[in-house]
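Supplementary notes (optional reading)

For those who missed the lab, this is the record we used. Protein: MLP-like protein 28. Length: 104 residues.
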Amino acid sequence: MALQGKVETEVEIKVPDDKFYNIWSKQAHHVPTASPNNIEAVHVHDGDWETEGSIKVWKYNIDGSPKVVKEKVVLNDEDKSVTIDWIGRRFVSGIQSNEDCPSC
């Protein structure tokens, strides 16, 4: 039996909101430099670095296991909120399954 739906969470971080918002809206390509042990690379799949709705491909690892995910970021300039939509991933009982991302 497969479940389908939307998973949402809030994460508390200790960084000024304008700095966090700026990273996701304009400087996502710097994230692998800040966390090289977990995030190997990020590149633009469709669009560009700064346009909302552009699709980026992230290569990362969890406990040494390589993963790939596509994401589309939705930005809200008014309240500086960031919504990250993962494309082509499935969640089962709160744990991300290991699906291939064939066009990455």
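If you only remember one thing from this example: The first helix runs from residue 17 to 26.
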